[in-house]
Amino acid sequence: MKKRKKALITGITGQDGSYLAELLLKKNYIVHGIKRKSSSFNTERVDHLYIDPHYSTNFYLHYGDLTDSNSVFNLISKIKPDEIYNLGAQSHVGVSFENPEYTSEVTGLGTLRVLEAMRFLNLKKCKFYQASTSELFGKTFGRKTFDEKSIFYPQSPYGASKLYAHWITQIYRDSYNMFACNGILFNHESPRRGETFVTKKITRFLTRYILGLENLLYLGNINAKRDWGHAKDYVEMQWRILQQKKPEDYIIATGKAYSVKQFINEACKYLKIKILWTGKGKNEKCYHIANGKKKIFIKVDKKYFRPLDINYLRGNPKRAYKKLKFKPKYNFYKLIKTMIDHDLDEAKKEKILIENQ
């Protein structure tokens, strides 16, 4: 009988972690996840996977923290996984300017702590995946797309922390002959995206707006362009990266870029909200047109502009397309549809609760 693989996922309660756990369980893995201790429950994205360990289960959650070397070491020593997916991070770019030290501890040094534990425990057969990011590139230097050979020039504490994690993964691979890989993932969204991220802010607001639950949305740089994919597609690529014969780094992207404003336009189109944009830059506003009247419902607020902002990021995924046989199932429009459909259901539930109070 073939031995079942064991996987350890840091950041399992996040968007990517929950989708990856689902994928690995379908592939008959035994899945272990690390979650941070909190006074409130923070496991809603994986609650549907959880089974009381007193019964037969393939899914286990453990308390741990990437800022604590002992907890990282003890868990890896206890589990002895075949694959480790390091998805844990303080992953909000804006927040990284407000909490740069914490971001560096978790996002940068957290990766080192996992790699050091693997090295010290001599887990030579264990494969390691590091969640790298398009924020490594930062300045475009006139480039239209970024590939595996593009220059790194991060523009935020988050990007700098991820760059350290990216390089330390390569250093441990080369120095200790470890199967350690970076997946440089461009922006990826889903219905499970956190509410502080711009795509989720938009879809959540619009669905609540049409039900009368919210009136006004403030956003930052709506002209910034990003290469947006679906998290469900991208976690499959994370798994495929670790199934290759040799450890390498890959760009995971769609190869197409759209602005935040285009995202809003398509979401409004899908919801049949007629809109009108006026003004430019920080004075730009979006009006809802209905019954011959116009009402401001989206405004740009300079408070949400970052100290250093990246206006354009688009990936070149040709290598991943070829070597990993990567072909996204979701395009930009289908991604928006899935997010809107989910958030509309949630908004309807919320309205029913309010009406029944």
Q: What's the Cα radius of gyration?
A: 21 Å
In spatial order, strands of the major sheet run: 3-2-1-4-5-6-11
**Which structural class do you get from the secondary structure elements?**
alpha/beta
Q: What can be said about the biggest beta sheet?
A: 7 strands, parallel
Low-pLDDT runs? none
Task: Describe this protein's structure.
This protein is an alpha/beta fold and 357 residues long. The chain contains 10 helices and 15 strands. It has helices spanning 15-26, 69-79, 93-98, 100-120, 157-176, 198-209, 231-241, 260-270, 318-323, 332-355, and strands at residues 6-10, 30-35, 59-63, 83-86, 127-133, 179-185, 188-189, 217-219, 225-226, 229-230, 250-252, 258-259, 275-278, 285-290, 293-300. The strands form 4 sheets. A 7-stranded parallel beta sheet has the order 3-2-1-4-5-6-11, sandwiched between helices. A 4-stranded mixed beta sheet has the order 8-15-14-13, covered by helices on one side. Strand 14 and strand 15 form a beta hairpin. The longest helix has 24 residues, at 332-355. It starts with 5 loop residues before the first strand and ends with a helix.
